[in-house]
Amino acid sequence: MAESNRTTEVAELILCNNEANIYDCNQSDPMGSQMPIPLTDAWLVPVFFILIMFVGLVGNSLVIYVVVKNQQMKTVTNVYIVNLATTDILFLVCCVPFTATLYTLPSWIFGDFMCRLINYLQQVTAQATCITLSAMSVDRFYVTVYPLQSLRHRTPQMALSVCTTIWICSLLLSVPIALYQHTESSFWFGPQTYCTEAFPSLIHKRAYILYSFLAVYLLPLITICMCYTFMLKRMAQATVEPVNGCNQVKLQTPAERVEAVRTRVSRMVVVMVLLFLLCWGPIQILILLQAFCSEDVSHSYTLYKLKIWAHCMSYSNSSINPVIYAFMGANFRKAFRSVFPLIFKRSARTTQPLPTYNREMNFLSS
Description:
Helix 2 (39-69) runs antiparallel to helix 3 and helix 4 (111-145) crosses helix 5 (147-153). The protein is built from 14 helices and two strands, in the order αααααααββααααααα. It is mainly alpha-helical. Strands 1-2 form a two-stranded antiparallel sheet. It has a single domain (6-239, 248-365), classed as Rhodopsin 7-helix transmembrane proteins (Rhopdopsin 7-helix transmembrane proteins, Up-down Bundle), CATH 1.20.1070.10. The longest helix is centred in the last third of the chain and has 39 residues, at 254-292.
């Protein structure tokens, strides 16, 4: 969820709660000068954001490139992965650089239109990311629990239609952010401009924050948990005989090998979902607490510091997914090696996947 009053909060809490705390926040400097922002926040957080942005843009762009350029990579699962990479790129471009400036500049300098647009796009990308992960979980549930039916209905074209619907829904559901976001001028240690929200009342504000928490985090979490609960039950029903009384299992038939590949793909999706929930959970909970707690708690310096940490975690999620694909996706590793043969030359000689394995992987995700 986009944090609408981010500029006001950063400026007030940094200037009013730093260790020196020389000035009272209700007083204005007669000379109109601005207090310096604490150096740790002013450079460390932006540097971390820039690093996240660089890694995320390179990694997600590479993911999109290898899927588009390799025909065998154009599968149902990879359509969702490309959609997720697209949301990550848009989030990194629309969110990270503008948020980074708030730690070095106490005032919003990009105007009213950008105030509305940036916060709107942040909400859209967060919403699209959550729904895409939910769609991926439903897709893995369908192919695991109903493998034969999925052969008839799971197609890249269907996945592309689902992704289009996800973007349309995300654009519509995020409209309130564009309507209630605006810039506000004030005089506080000099003239300042803030990008903040203007809901008709506190009840409206809390209602939208609660709705956003449900739509962006809780409902997708419930959907994902239900899908994987049924998947685990289905996988527990599959039995194979041990070889010579030991714990090793011999996959003798193509159907058994297909089941093993399906499990590996599902495991990768599980890791992606868990990382998303861990990265975005803290900031969602803190925003909810800030909206419903007293002002002493919601405007405390402790909460501000916690939200810095939570923002770093949520932003880093957009750069983590390509790493997951590289380590857990055999087809992605092969595609990355084809793009950077010199880097992956040594690993290419030692980890060549079998042709049968590749055919089964494509069969599962087509």
